[in-house]
Amino acid sequence: MSHPLHVAFIWHQHQPLYKSPGSGVSLSPSQQYRLPWVRLHGTKDYLDLVLLLERYPKLHQTVNLVPSLILQLEDYIAGTAFDPYLTASLTPTEQLTQQQREFIIEHFFDANHHTLIDPHPRYAQLYEQRQEKGPAWCLANWELPDYSDLLAWHNLAWIDPLFWDDPEIAAWLKQGRNFTLSDRQRIYSKQREILSRIIPQHRKMQEAGQLEVTTTPYTHPILPLLADTNSGRVAVPNMTLPEYRFQWAEDIPRHLQKAWNLYKDRFGQIPRGLWPSEQSVSPEILPYIINQGFKWICSDEAVLGWTLKHFFHRDGAGNVEQPELLYQPYRLQTPAGDLAIVFRDHRLSDLIGFTYSAMPAKQAAADLVGHLQAIARMQRDSQSEQPWLVTIALDGENCWEFYPQDGKPFLEALYQTLSNEPHLKLVTVSEFLEQFPATATIPGEQLHSGSWVDGSFTTWIGDPAKNRAWDYLTQARNLLANHPEATEDNNPEAWEALYAAEGSDWFWWFGEGHSSNQDAIFDQLFREHLFGIYKALNEPIPSHIRQPVEVHQARADHRPEGFIHPVIDGKGDEQDWDKAGRIEIGGARGTMHNSSVIQRLWYGVDHLNFYLRLDFKSGVAPGGDLPAELNLLWFYPDKTMVNSPVPLADVPDAAPLNYLFHHLLEINLLTQSIQFREAGENHQWHPRASRAQVALNNCLELAVPWADLQVPPDYPLRLILVLADEGRFCNYLPENALIPIEVP
User: Does pLDDT of 351 surpass 80?
Assistant: First the structure.
């Protein structure tokens, strides 16, 4: 019989523990939350996702709610949680201190301005003043109504569009300006009202059978690293490890038991699925998960690839080759018993997480359904007796900030299409496993130790700052072990502080790889949790806990930190490029020294395009100091193809300029016109069509579609930029190097 293609969406809802343990590190009791993201994401992302789904009863999904998120939501609902943003929002404007005003100007635009600020004229006006005239001007010129409006809009903009038909919210949106303290107090009440509906709505839909709710270890720790920090060397054998080895596997059942108990209390039943934090797994953690009673876990296709020693290649359309390996559940066999595991399709998950926000909603939904229909055809062609399960699993909150209207048009288009597609069936993971138990098996000891990030743990360990944090944690954990009288019953403060410090998020932000506007606050929170352990044990506080784990400053050159989707308008919007790779040109040694007219090069990707930005010295114009022709030349390492040399006069015979290249994009900076060419036989270059976009304003911005370059996903390529004038070589960048690019 032919089965429909079963599809399991798993949305992971998580926020780190922003609640400070009242450690005495400059804290007042009314501000026990350092950051507002539980409250703001709570009003924007958690309730609307399931309310939208409820309108399409045929579609079943899975949502993961992390215990530390649930506990923080409950604090806000109870009115006991206050963060600095909320305190400022509820302060009469005439009583705002100078320090609060500076804080408001700096932080009350912490949002994607395209989707959360620009649609609201008054909020956009204040943002433009801050951007164009600067914080000092705002501080000197803003009146009390300006502050009051900004305080109101910062909270209003984060209320999901699904609730805009609420009469009070609709009135505020229409009002636009001249908000009073009373308005701001009522907006806060509305936030708490939305937050109070989140858990009951999930429970109701789970009881109705449309939703499966899963859980995560208590404070979202990386379980394999709790078992043994040496597991970092499974994927990266030469990894530099922390000075002290962390080996506290006995903390794993504590995290699992606390998550289990909390879930049972809030949802009136026991959980079946476990989302291991960051989809991190290892053979060592499996017995604890099985003994706690969980029936299934999920991880990433990279972990499956390492486990099977099989790399998942994709065709030109981005569809997996040998799909039957990925699109089935597996049974992990251990002496403690068996455990089912599903592996997510990394690329489909990333398309929702990072790319579809940049496309029109209907086109994006059609693209995703098109991929699923292609997989359904492959399933039919395979004539498999066993139905396939495509798992799409991703962060359920952060991506929507980049979608118009918080993703509502995209999800509505997607759900409507899926409801009408007979060959696709959306299921919860447990539903599928009950009907079609896993038949493929993996011996537990064969499971790879890794996470969703490249199948390794490098995001949380191996960097000097991350390792330093692990050493601080190890010392505090050993101290707690030396206090056997401090049990969870008689000293819960020490244990809660430990669990909080074991959370994954602190290590995510330390060191290379990720950076935010709030790195220093994450650093402080981590140390406050450690501080809480020493304080609860009445032990002296080590001096290192009073100092930041690392110095937080803007870094110069760095690789891309995530997908980007810049608007190509030549304005160089700082938010659009904040996750891009960056190469400083102006200050480099050698040919491109301080006199360079190009100061900085930015580059990045999403699933649609390669993006490039060049920042120029002020006052520079093409055809004068800046040569009028910019050539992008693409080099494909280790790939057999026809290549040609740089087609310019006076090109130096030195690497990398004397390499042979396959694609060439010429940009005339005076006219902003482009010509795209491909290498041919006998060192010729042939014209090809291109859909590249270019814009030159106060900087140069460029988007080159992957379709132009015709390279498959997961393929590495290299780029060099050459400046020319009337066909004669002038200069090139970056100096003595090629820009490394990974096709997603």
Answer: yes
